[in-house]
Amino acid sequence: MQWYHYTLIGVIIFLITLVVISYFQAKKASSKLDAETFKQNMRKGQLIDVRTKQEFKSGHINGARNISVTTIGRDYQKLRKDLPVYIYCSTGRRSSRAAIYLTSKGFNEIYELDKGLKNWNDPLK
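RESULT FIELD:
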């Protein structure tokens, strides 16, 4: 085998490892709730929409605050660690990233809307 075959195999193994690690980090960081359970419990904590400002303005769950996943690094301090955090985005990808970040900052009780707003049937504000 040529040296570039070994390099390619190494890159593929590295990428697969990253995907597996990300999956388990996301799974450990939060609990995913179906839309009905999320709706029943979201008032017990802090409801956070991690989409962009434009997406938030186009429609959001009533009572949600907008802290974009791109600004959560500086805005997470606005959240209370002693209250549960209920987060959502459009599809669940950004909220998973936000959950991993919040866990790294000491938040223990994080709940995500499974599959994001595409799984939400109630009206938006």
